[in-house]
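Message: Just now I want nothing more than another pair of eyes on a protein record. I am handing you a single protein, as its sequence and its fold in token form. As I understand it, each token names a local backbone shape. Take your time, and here it is.
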Amino acid sequence: MDVKCVMVLADDLPVGLAVNAAGVLAVTLGHKVPSLLPANAVDASGTAHAGLINVPLPILVAERSALKTLHERALELEQVTLVGFSDVAQHARTYDAYVAALASTPAETLIYLGLALYGPKKALNKLVGNLPLYGRVPGG
């Protein structure tokens, strides 16, 4: 299967929050899809370096309303692994606080600040193929 990995962040996030969201999404996706992380690589001196993700990981942007729609559409796709980073996660200072807050938050009220997706290239291209890269000047 030809696979793709992609991250989509809210287009209005300040840089610091965007970097934080991307980091959380990347670590979580790597945990959920262990095949993304290959064996260590060794340099000419014999020093081992951690294996880096083995597929490209473009970071795209979308409006928050589009992230909600993307999340809903991705949930319907069986072969797509989806990780969402919401406003509830952003405001929690600990994982326990996140779990407690999420338990009292209806799904329809979550505001997604970022998504990480992994799955068949064709399916993901249909979902995100028209979104711009993070940092790209509109029309540029």
